[in-house]
TrEMBL record, chains A, B:
<protein>
    <submittedName>
        <fullName>DinB family protein</fullName>
    </submittedName>
</protein>
<keyword id="KW-0479">Metal-binding</keyword>
<dbReference type="InterPro" id="IPR034660">
    <property type="entry name" value="DinB/YfiT-like"/>
</dbReference>
<dbReference type="Pfam" id="PF05163">
    <property type="entry name" value="DinB"/>
</dbReference>
<dbReference type="InterPro" id="IPR007837">
    <property type="entry name" value="DinB"/>
</dbReference>
<comment type="similarity">
    <text>Belongs to the DinB family.</text>
</comment>
Length: 172, 172
């Protein structure tokens, strides 16, 4: 009986709603957009520390994940992530083009998000045909990976003598 | 009627359970622990890029947040975050001491987590007497802030010629 009560309580505990998770993601995307904007044009494409990728290449990865990612979460149709130059997004040659693509994905996420079937978040999926786990863990991975690479962009900016946007500022 | 159905569906959608969020956090903490371990002793305390803090100081911040943070989420009792040398944790003088404190906090989180009142996650709190919002957003902030600073540690390591642990490896 005690087990049953615990199970019921756990099942009805709302940690975060789908709408809140969308807002959380878009708050991070808004901050990442401002980090892209903070880079000088040339350094965005070329600056590197310790043999790591320029911030541009990390951002292309984030775009490659977010767009097909939200589509996959909604439909559960997946294809493999492109590698390196195989990304159609990697043809962007200016920060402006990258930001434009970024904004398209932001709008796409907003319009597709309400179509996520409610049971999907807890359903085990295989995102990008490779990563098996509940869909919520894929979504958190998309967000965490963005925070991770954006923070590397922060170090690039600091090393270039540029003050990055505040980490806690997620207004959009 | 359609609105009522939607509201009911939203209220019962489980995005992530408390247990899953705990596991998610501890997975990140396990990775951060391995990033601390990857630093050479001296560089952990002194290495810096672009005028940023040494990784040690960032880790002390994470410890100052996580310990009192989980206590505050459970009890809703808060005090302000210490600044700089005011942290009792900043007296650690070796990596070993920092890792020991890290492990104590890990155990504390595991033991206190089940005591979080189920309604707390959605309750508006004022964490550290400063940051107002639903408790889930504070918890996500703790995690996001850890990912953010750990990723800066990744750049420090790469710049030192050291291969960091894989970002996706959250086994613990």
């Amino acid at each position: 009986m005690s087990n049953l009560l615990n199970t019921t309580a756990a099942a009805t505990t709302v940690v975060i709603t789908p709408e809140e998770l969308l807002r959380h993601w878009q708050g991070h995307r808004s901050l990442t957009r401002r980090v892209i904007e903070a880079f000088p044009e040339n350094e965005f494409f070329s600056y590197s520390i310790g043999g790591m990728r320029p911030f541009y290449e990390m951002v292309i990865e984030l775009i490659d994940i977010a767009g097909p990612g939200i589509h996959g979460i909604v439909t559960n149709e997946w294809s493999r992530l492109p590698e390196g130059d195989h990304s159609v997004n990697s043809f962007a040659k200016t920060k402006k083009e990258v930001l434009h693509r970024w904004d398209e994905i932001t709008a796409q996420i907003n319009s597709l998000w309400p179509l996520i079937p409610p049971q999907r978040f807890q359903e085990v999926i295989k995102s990008f045909e490779q990563y098996e786990g509940p869909a919520y863990s894929s979504l958190l991975y998309f967000i965490d990976n963005e925070i991770h690479h954006r923070a590397q962009g922060y170090v690039y900016l600091r090393s270039l003598g540029i003050q990055p946007p505040f980490f806690w500022d997620r207004e959009f």
